[in-house]
Design brief:
The chain is 16% helix and 27% strand. By secondary structure, it is α/β, with parallel strands linked by helices. It folds into two domains: 159 residues, Immunoglobulin-like; 261 residues, Vaccinia Virus protein VP39 (Rossmann fold, 3-Layer(aba) Sandwich). Helix 7 links the parallel strand 19 and strand 20. About 5% of the residues have low confidence.
Length: 484
């Protein structure tokens, strides 16, 4: 799939903290002097597979923030060796030039200074802190004359929170926009610092890195509703982003990072949320690789599904597609839907549940989202009871970056056929369910990016098995395919 079909398409790069900060900062309690703690990090710039990218130079910004609010902390400043900033004023951020010619990762030697509390306040508590690495604001500004040529480009930028970052050209003539990264929380402990000496840091490092996927706010009230209301309607509360937790120390595990196809699937679903309902027809890409859908279909009239829709993600990993689908389901009138994120047991017990738990507390800003449940599901012939998540009249399977291993294609196909081509109607699980043919609607949506030789052979394998296979969306290297 060539970038040439979409002139505005770019690739998604990753800013990485190749060396994460210490897990705990130890400070002296009761002192009335500023305390400075040395901190050493390392930065890298890669693609989603972790391959280092080569380009001329890129100005990056390192910030110290409160971990829970992502706001600058009070009474804490950051100093960074080699900073490009010429100001002598205390700050919570610093910029530096990342130049791959100097090596694939840059060591960042800095320090944090903690100002003493006011005399009347005693020992002050400091909330957990984190570092954020992002492209410098001066490097984010695109030319005002450059506008996205497609809804997909604008949506991708909105999802990753980079609406105006200029693209960076690598030495192999590819264009990238880079995703920021935030470290996991660092805890500040008063009482263990040695009296009269600078603070100390723990040997243990933070184990997690965080990326954010931004959500659209709920629809604003209509002008008519606002006009007849006695009190002006409050502005919609922007929902908190979806937190995606990565574990850089476990990068050999494919489930431990955020892949491009998960972002591509989220973009496709955001533009066409009706695709989550298998009873709704999908458009197909034309021969030039462009969709026959001219504009986002968020306002498309959607009839109520004859029974609740069940969304099941296969090989979910960090479960971004599941969580994004749960957020979108209310926009198509399926608030009674069910969403299940599945993977092998080791991933469910670690990455998947960790990511679901990280987002479960955002009830105040995403109150109407459909809850996401987890379940162990191995592909292939299912053990008794293992396919319960797949048994429903209205099922949409989601998969992102699950075709990279051709040796697993036959097992994946067996699972798809179990859902899309059941030999006999499955019995209902309760008296209110009905599996008659009139209610049956099922499809699979798989986001694909070429990873290995032969991984695109799955499409022909599925066709030979009798499935309808269509490409329904494409942007850059990522495409979404429907199986019915």
């Amino acid at each position: 799939m060539s970038d040439l079909a979409q002139p505005d398409a770019f690739r998604l790069g990753r800013l990485c903290l190749a060396r994460l900060p210490p897990a705990t900062l130890h400070l002296e309690a009761g002192t009335r002097r500023p305390q400075t703690v040395p901190v050493e990090l390392a930065a890298a710039v890669t693609d989603d597979y972790g391959v280092d990218l080569e380009f001329d130079s890129l100005d990056l910004m390192l910030e110290i923030l409160e971990a829970d609010t992502l706001e600058p902390p009070s009474g804490v400043t950051l100093q960074l060796e080699g900073s490009l900033s010429r100001s002598s004023k205390p700050s919570t951020s610093a910029t530096f030039a990342f130049m791959p010619v100097r090596g694939p990762f840059h060591t960042l030697k800095g320090s944090l200074t903690f100002m003493p509390p006011a005399p009347s306040s005693g020992t002050r508590a400091v909330r957990p802190l984190c570092f954020r690495l992002s492209v410098s604001p001066d490097s984010r500004r695109r030319s005002p004359s450059i506008e996205p040529a497609s809804a997909s480009a604008a949506e991708i930028r909105a999802l990753i929170g980079e609406p105006s970052q200029a693209t960076t050209s690598t030495w192999d003539d590819k264009s990238y926009v880079f995703m920021s990264v935030t470290s996991g929380p660092m805890h500040v402990d008063f009482g263990r610092g040695e009296p009269g000496k600078a603070g100390a840091v723990s040997q243990e490092k933070v184990q997690t890195a965080i990326r954010l996927i931004h959500l659209r706010p709920p629809p604003s009230p209509s002008p008519l509703t606002t006009a007849i209301a006695l009190d002006p309607a409050p502005a919609p509360i922007p929902p908190r982003p979806i937190t995606v937790i990565e574990r850089p120390g476990l990068n050999n595990s494919t489930g431990q990072r955020l892949w491009d196809c998960a972002i591509g699937m989220s973009c496709f679903l955001s533009l066409h949320p009706y695709a989550l309902d298998p009873s709704q027809a999908l458009s197909t890409l034309g021969p030039a690789g462009r969709s026959s859908i001219a504009a986002p279909d968020r306002r498309r009239p959607v009839r109520k599904a004859p029974s609740p829709v069940r969304i099941v993600e296969l090989g979910a990993g960090c479960a971004l597609a599941s969580q994004y689908a749960a957020h979108l389901l209310r926009s198509i009138g399926n608030t009674d839907a069910a969403v299940v994120a599945t993977d092998v047991e080791a991933t469910v017990d670690s990455t998947l549940r960790e990511n679901l738990a990280a987002n479960a507390g955002d009830l105040l800003t995403r109150l109407e989202d459909v809850p996401v449940h987890d379940e162990v599901l191995d592909w292939g012939k299912l053990a008794p009871g293992q396919g319960n998540a797949l048994l429903a009249p209205q099922v949409t399977l989601l998969g992102t970056d699950i075709l990279y291993n051709p040796s697993s294609h036959s097992l994946l196909l067996e699972t798809l056929l179990y859902v899309l081509r059941p030999a006999l109607p499955s019995p209902p699980s309760d008296a209110s369910s009905s599996f008659d043919d009139a209610n049956l609607a099922r499809r699979a949506l798989i986001a694909y990016k070429r990873r290995t030789d032969g991984d695109d052979g799955f499409f022909e394998l599925a066709r030979r098995a009798g499935l309808g296979v269509r490409r329904v969306w494409e942007w850059g290297e990522v495409s979404v395919w429907a199986f019915e």
